[in-house]
Specification:
By secondary structure, the protein is α/β, with parallel strands linked by helices. It is 48% helix and 15% strand. It contains nine helices and nine strands. The strands form two sheets. The protein has a seven-stranded parallel beta sheet, sandwiched between helices. The chain has a two-stranded parallel ribbon with strand order 5-8. Keywords: Oxidoreductase.
């Protein structure tokens, strides 16, 4: 790759899962990558992946006050950020009634407010340059829902909507925005990374216990390959006209298409009541 074609990626959450796969793929293609890690021990390991082109930054995306200065330092020392990938996030599992309110706040702090804070920090630089690409990793859970992940789906629905609005706001500045919604991939999302609220209400046993058991058993056996997801991200970055929404995985494709069809049927079934509320 020519140096003029090399981009500087800023990727949050590169210690494992998608973040690590995205970083490895970008480095393999000759790009430079700044990756955020939450534990100092992960810095040296990440830097060693590609000396001179891989740089770890100690940053928790929920430390909102630290984000803007950190991004400004990256721009000043390493150069213009071409691509921001808001990848840092986790899944919370638990029925809504059983799950503490603080768990919802934490879920939104990481999955939504952290991504928005990172975005707000890079936007002034990208806007002045009239160039840049912001990629928000959402989920098929930002389109479809399942019992037991209300907080998670809520956060991903929010990020999908925010991404879509942002794409319209910055289009004339040459900035691209894509919300990438993966299906089930072999990451730690359903394993050690997932926060699970304990069970306390027997009424939910029949509905939720089998779902929790199936999710735990499926962890590590999902159809999605993180390395292929990373290749898809690089194809997205290379595109002159990237989409605002991109699904990853056949399961996401099938489930979201099913949701759209069912929603269309429901809208049609209730159309007369919908129309009844206009002034005559």
């Amino acid at each position: 790759m020519n140096s003029k074609d090399s981009k500087l990626f800023l990727i949050t959450g590169v210690s494992s899962g998608f973040g690590r796969a995205f970083a490895e793929a970008a480095l393999a293609e000759g790009h430079r990558v700044v990756g955020t890690v939450r534990i100092a021990s992960g810095q040296e390991q990440f830097d060693a992946m590609a000396p001179g082109r891989a740089k770890a930054v100690l940053l928790d995306v929920t430390d909102f006050a630290a984000i803007e200065p950190a991004v400004a330092r990256i721009e000043a020392v390493l150069g213009p950020i071409d691509v921001l990938i808001n990848n840092a996030g986790y899944g919370h599992e638990g029925t809504l009634e059983e799950s503490p309110f603080d768990e919802m706040r934490r879920q939104f702090d990481v999955n939504v407010f952290g991504a928005v804070a990172m975005t707000k920090a890079v936007l002034p630089f990208m806007r002045r340059r009239r160039a840049g690409h912001i990629i928000n990793i959402t989920s098929m859970g930002g389109f479809i829902t399942m019992p037991g992940i209300a907080y998670y789906c809520g956060s991903k629905f929010a990020l999908e909507g925010i991404s879509e609005v942002l794409a319209k706001e910055v289009k004339d500045f040459g900035i691209k925005v894509t919300a990438v919604a993966p299906g089930s991939f072999r990451t730690d999302w359903a394993g050690r990374s997932m926060v699970r609220t304990g069970r306390s209400i027997a009424d939910y046993d029949a509905l939720f216990d089998p779902i929790r058991k199936a999710r735990e058993e499926k962890s590590g056996n999902q159809a999605g390959d993180p390395r292929k997801a990373a290749a898809a991200i690089l194809a997205l970055v290379a595109s002159d006209e990237p989409p605002v929404h991109l699904l990853l995985g056949t399961d996401a494709l099938n489930l979201v298409r099913g949701k759209i069809a069912a929603l269309g049927e429901e809208i049609t079934a209730w159309e007369s009541l919908t129309r009844s509320t206009d002034f005559g």
